[in-house]
Each structure stands twice: as C-alpha cells, then as structure tokens.
Design brief:
By secondary structure, the protein is an alpha/beta fold. Helix content is 35%, strand content 10%. It has an 8-stranded parallel beta sheet with strand order 2-1-3-8-7-4-5-6, sandwiched between helices. α8 links the parallel β7 and β8. InterPro entries: AcuC, HDACs, His_deacetylse_dom, His_deacetylse_dom_sf, Ureohydrolase_dom_sf.
Length: 400
C-alpha cells in the first residue's frame, strides 16, 4: 500500500469547537457539521497525537486585522448585521440567500480569519513550518462584499499578514471548484502575490468569473492566473491542468510562502458542482502543493479548506488527507477509514460512509510534454491560460 509519507516538520492544525458557530442555519449547504466530522476523523486517525503536530485554537481577528484586506465600512456593516440580523445589507452581500444574517456573524467569521492569521504568525515566528486551517478558505469574500457563503476572507488576510511581516512574495493556489474571485480581487494590483485558481468554468458555475484573460491589474499583469476547467472535467483533466500550469509559474515566481485553498466541492458527489473529481485526485494535488512548498519555500505552507458540501461522505476524508499530507503522515487514499468514525457517522446521520480514505481511483494524467491537442476542451483552456501569462514570466507557452 502506498503511504505517500513525507518529512515530519512542525505542523499547526487550527481547530476548536467554537469554529462551529459559523452557521447559516440547518438548510444551508455550508453546514458546520462537516468541520466537526473532519476534526473527529483527524483525531481517530491519530494525526493530532503526532509529536510534531500542535492544535491551535483560533482567536477572533480584530477589526485592525480584518482591515488589512477589508474596508472599514464593510467591517462595520458586518458588525451591525451581526448584532441585529434585521439590518441586512444586500448591497454588501449580507443577509442574502447565500450569506444569511445571523446573530454573532461577525465574531464567528472573524474567528475563522483568526485561525489563518494565527497560522501565518506561527510561520513567520518559525514555530511551525506548515499549518492547516480546514475551517478557513473563505475565498469569495471581497474587500467590501460578502459572497458565496464567505464573509471575511481568511486566506487573503493570511497572505497579507505574511507580506506585512517580511515575506517578499506569496503564492496563492486555489483548487476549489469555484473561482477564487475574492482573493484574486484583493490582490489584483499587487505583484507580490500570485493567485492561481483552477475551477469549473464560469460558463456553468458561480461566480461566473475566472477566465484566462483575467491576468491582473496595471503593474501586476500575469500575477492573476485562471484555468477555467471544462464543466465535467474529471480526474485526468484536472491533474493535467494542474501540472501544466502550477509548477511552472510557481518556479518562475519563486515564493517565500505558499497559501493554498483546498475546497473539495470538485468531488463527483458534491451537490453544487460538476467537475467529477475523486478524493484520490484531490490528494494528488495536495501532494503537488506540498512538493512545491518543500522545493521553493523551505516547506513553508498554509493550507485551508473551502467549499465542500457532501458533508459526511467526502469532506472529512478529503481534509483529513490534507492534514496527513501536511503532517507527512503515512495515511493515503488506500488507508481504511477508522471503523469507530464510520460507526459514529452512521449513528449520527444514517450515512454509510466509504471504507477507504479515497475512492479507489487511480489518478493519472497526460504530461503537457506529450503534446497539445487543439481538439480537446481541456487542452484549449490550458493553452489559453499559458498564452495569457507564461510569456509575462519568461516562459514559453508551448514548451515550458
């Protein structure tokens, strides 16, 4: 059995039951139960007991913390709605169908942000090399607007914190099924940050953005990178796209730290998306990001969660594998899921979850070096991205 183990470097896992307060209500897809089940599975797999792993409770980010990536007016509006949901502000995306207002919204959202900020602080201080905040990844939140279940953009806040505390360049990689539009918009004009988003095309999925021609603002051309994947891409296409774009640009950019968003809503069972990706392929991309961090950043890597709405059958397995990859632990898609966890989910939700951490898929992809097929939808979208940004970084879109 393949273990895919890696170096045991100091890792911080962000978790506390207080994170479950980020709760839009029982009928909303963003059910905090997915976090509870993930935390329980990571414990049942023994990941939180490893000697080089510490568990950190998130702090509630201050208004000053949040103002590094959000406007003061927006923070004030969130606070207002948080204390009185009847004051919903649809113009700022608060109190909508996607982000319903609830009492305590500000504190709950700021706590998720604090988790990623604390991870950034720990990396800057050198107390850890890697960190995972599977409750984070709120990548749709823009500077002055909530969107797509996201209120405060914790990943963007972590990127900005790293910059403010000495990082020269930060690479943000987003493999959620939805375009990482909020994070892209916040750093649109900043060449110190490269945002790479691989997502289902906006022609078939919210937020309807993230095409190859979105490449960054004046002075930062080529630092926003988008791969708009075909609607039902599947494992081999997604992995071909990842390996045809991400390593090359990461090498040219030479980041000091990588921040990644691992929304697992690309899965074939997810009720909101169409990409049809397996947990095994998601795991392969996690390994790809870890390899880049080890090769380019002395291992420095913050990984977040994000989307994922098959709350019992998919999310816990995917994000437990994320923790395992970051921990360098010998847990892989072929590893059996602990029976105690499966019994707990069956009793709690009546769901008979998979017996293995993965889906039994064999992730495989054609290397870009094999050649470009102009009749293939995936190859055309990858080539569009490479043509749009590779030359701006001294790379050849046909061969590098």
């Amino acid at each position: 059995m393949s273990t895919h183990s890696g170096p045991a470097v100091p890792l911080q896992v962000v978790w506390d039951e207080s994170m479950l307060a980020y709760n839009f209500g029982g009928q909303h897809p963003m059910n905090p139960e997915r976090l509870h089940l993930t935390a329980r599975l990571t414990r049942d797999c023994g990941l939180l007991d490893l000697g080089h792993v510490t568990v950190a409770s998130p702090f509630v980010a201050s208004d000053d913390d949040l103002a590094t990536v959000h406007s003061p007016d927006y923070i004030s509006a969130v606070r207002s709605v948080s204390s009185n949901p009847d004051r919903s502000d649809a113009g700022m995306g608060l109190g909508t169908e996607d982000t319903p207002a609830f009492v305590g919204m500000h504190e709950a959202s700021a706590r998720l942000a604090g988790g990623s900020l604390g991870a950034a602080d720990a990396i800057v201080q050198g107390s850890v090399v890697r960190a995972v905040n599977f409750g984070g990844g709120m990548h749709h939140a823009a500077r002055s607007r909530a969107s797509g279940f996201c209120i405060y953009n914790d990943a963007a806040a972590a990127v900005q914190r790293l910059l403010d505390r000495g990082a020269r360049r930060v690479l943000y990689i987003d493999v959620d099924a939805h375009h990482g539009d909020g994070t892209q918009s916040i750093f649109w004009d900043d060449p110190r940050v490269m945002t790479i988003s691989l997502h289902e095309t906006g022609m078939s999925l919210f937020p309807g953005t993230g095409f190859a021609n979105e490449t960054g603002g004046p002075g930062a051309e080529g630092y926003a990178v988008n791969v708009a994947l075909p609607t039902v891409a599947g494992d081999s296409a997604v992995l071909r796209a990842f390996h045809a774009v991400v390593p090359q640009l990461a090498g040219a950019f030479a980041p000091d730290v990588i921040v990644s968003q691992h929304g697992c809503d690309s899965h074939r069972e997810d009720p909101l998306t169409n990409l049809r990706v397996s947990v095994d392929a998601q795991h392969a991309m996690m390994l790809g990001v870890r390899e880049l961090a080890d090769r380019l950043c002395d291992g420095r890597w913050i990984a977040t969660g994000g989307g994922g709405y098959a709350l019992a059958s998919v999310v816990p397995r995917s994000w437990t594998l994320l923790v395992a990859v970051a921990a360098g632990a010998a847990i892989a898609p072929a590893t059996p899921v602990p029976a105690a966890w499966r019994d707990y989910v069956l009793e709690r939700h009546g769901i008979d979850t998979p017996a293995l951490m993965g889906d039994g898929a064999e992730p495989w992809w054609r290397s870009w070096e094999i050649g470009y097929d102009p009749n293939d939808d995936l190859d055309r979208t990858v080539m569009a991205t490479r043509k749009a940004v590779f030359p701006l970084h001294g790379l050849d879109p046909w061969f590098d």
